[in-house]
Amino acid sequence: MIKQLTIFASMAKDGLNEALQGNKSYHIWMGSLTMLMLLGAYCYHQQLNVGLSATGMSDRVSWGLYISNFTFLVGVAAAAVMLVLPTYILHDFDFSKAVLIGEGLAASALIMCLAFVTVDLGGPIRAWHLIPGIGRFNWPDSMLAWDVIVLNGYLIINLTVPLYILISKYQGLQPNKKIYLPGVFLSVFWAVGIHMVTAFLYAGLPARPFWNNALLGPRFLASAFAAGPALIILVLQVIDRYSDYKIDKVTIRKISLVVAVAAQINLIMLFSELFKEFYAPTHHSISAVYLFFGLDGKNALMPWIYSSIAMNIVATIILTLHVLRKDIKWLNFACLLLFVAIWIEKGMGLIIPGFIPGPYGDIVEYSPTLIEIGVTLGIWAMGAFIFTILVKAAIPIEVGKLRYKNNKSVSTIEP
User: What's the domain count of the chain?
Assistant: First the structure.
């Protein structure tokens, strides 16, 4: 046990040294993220002083930009399964070099998810209610309690499995499949669970008919498996360009095919929901009417949702056409469009309309304040900062440049 702690401490020290080194562009990137995190910390300090009245949220619209980003990032975290599944279960090792990056992205996204929940509580001290045995956890009746369990469980899986593999490779040893494969298989089911449980959290609120939809869970998964791998494609190209960790073109092509299929399914589900809302509209369709057409002259969300649908359609067309999808410039453009489109769809297009109109038919529109935007930018910067450090420390171990110096015997490492 003491030896393993010594090896872990050595790996952490060597990894930190790697993270502190880089060219001018790298230090500008890390410095920019640090400035954004400081901005976010300042805005959060202001929010703590004033309370949630510093945000655009109210007793009518009680979930805003924070929960919108939380919902979206749960999908980004779940997307790692689309790399783990073909690599370890289907034995398609063209995905293998992307798995490490995907799991690092999942861990960073989950940390951001927990951060967004924390800032939405109004104060971190209120999180004690979520601690089993101390607060009123209310498990298993509360879907929120289930969400806390699956998010923290998935975070532990995405930290421990890659950590074991990296520690083994750091010592020049072959990772034992009997140790890490059970965690890999568990992560596949758990990844689906985190997004389904989050969807059930909304769908289980019958007083919010806009969310009370049986298709919400499957659509959450479709959008997650589109937006998450789309981001991974962009990240892989940056890593391939600026590091020694080279990504084969076939890996990008196969992930882009996953994105294309998921985007198509997501679009089909979107049109299915539109048919359900507007072919035979009822009083329960009023939130959708507000979102797409406005009510009583108030239509703040219309530009958001129509922009999202337009970007979704354009991106899906590009990804569907093989000629365009194989062109890296068109592929990157489509991935960026799709990522932004689903971010809007999961935020301004899903969370906010669920609260409008209010219980008495009043329309109180929501617009995020500068405080909310500052805190949000800070959390995104924190996630990018953590992900950059994880990747910068892990890549030298993965490519064999960083090894435990006291270990004299080096064995073959499986691909």
Answer: 1
Q: Is residue 408 part of a domain?
A: no
Dihedral (CA of 262, 264, 268, 271) sign? positive
Residue 351 located in a structural domain: yes
| Domain range for 108 | 15-398
In a domain, 403, yes or no: no
Each residue's pLDDT expressed in tens, for the chain with a length of 415 residues: 677 788 888 888 888 888 888 888 899 999 999 999 999 999 999 999 998 889 989 888 888 899 999 999 988 888 877 777 777 766 766 677 788 888 888 889 999 999 999 899 877 777 777 776 777 777 777 788 888 888 888 888 888 888 888 888 888 888 888 888 888 888 888 888 888 888 898 888 888 888 888 888 888 889 988 998 999 999 999 988 888 888 888 889 989 999 999 999 999 999 998 998 888 888 888 989 999 998 888 888 899 999 999 999 999 999 999 999 999 999 999 999 999 999 999 888 898 998 888 777 778 888 899 999 999 999 999 999 999 999 888 888 888 888 887 644 343 344 3
User: Is 287 domain-assigned?
Assistant: yes
Residue from 22, 5, 20, 98 nearest 404 by CA: 5
Distance CA 111, CA 317 (A): 33
CATH number of the domain that residue 357 is part of? 1.20.1630.10
Token pair belonging to 164: 């074991």
**If DSSP codes are grouped into helix, strand and coil, which group holds residue 366?**
coil
